[in-house]
Design brief:
The protein is mainly beta. The chain has no helices and 11 strands. It is globular and about 40 Å long. It starts with a strand and ends with a strand. The mean pLDDT is about 95.
């Protein structure tokens, strides 16, 4: 049974940092492309960052230079380091994976809440 479990969310002041983790079981994370998405209240879900099987990365314009996505193959986890957080980063963050050639993301985590507020 495949599971993706996010952790690390919470309340942080503007300018602060959080590190989200996505722990995978039932699959080998390095064999998949994985992404972090977020959804704020009343807004559509948006892609935040992606890490492809090749190791290349993609970052959305709103987080470029502030967020860093990494993967630990030994632990079968991925992390999203979020620095210089802004109130507009407040959202539920989800990790998701898809295999090569898949048209969509096959597995999703349950999400973790990130709130940036003073």
């Amino acid at each position: 049974q495949v599971q993706l479990v996010e952790s690390g969310g919470g309340l942080v002041q503007p300018g602060g940092s959080l590190r989200l983790s996505c722990a995978a079981s039932g699959l080998t994370l390095s064999l998949y492309s994985m992404s972090w998405f977020r959804q704020a209240p009343g807004k559509e879900r948006e892609i935040v960052a992606s890490l492809y099987r090749t190791g290349s990365t993609y970052y959305g314009d709103s987080v470029k230079g502030r967020f860093t996505l990494s993967r630990d193959n030994a632990k079968n986890t991925a992390a999203l380091q979020m620095d210089s957080l802004k109130p507009e980063d407040t959202a539920i963050y989800y990790c998701a994976v898809k295999s090569l050639g898949s048209p969509g993301y096959q597995y999703w985590g349950q999400g973790t809440q990130v709130t940036v507020s003073s």
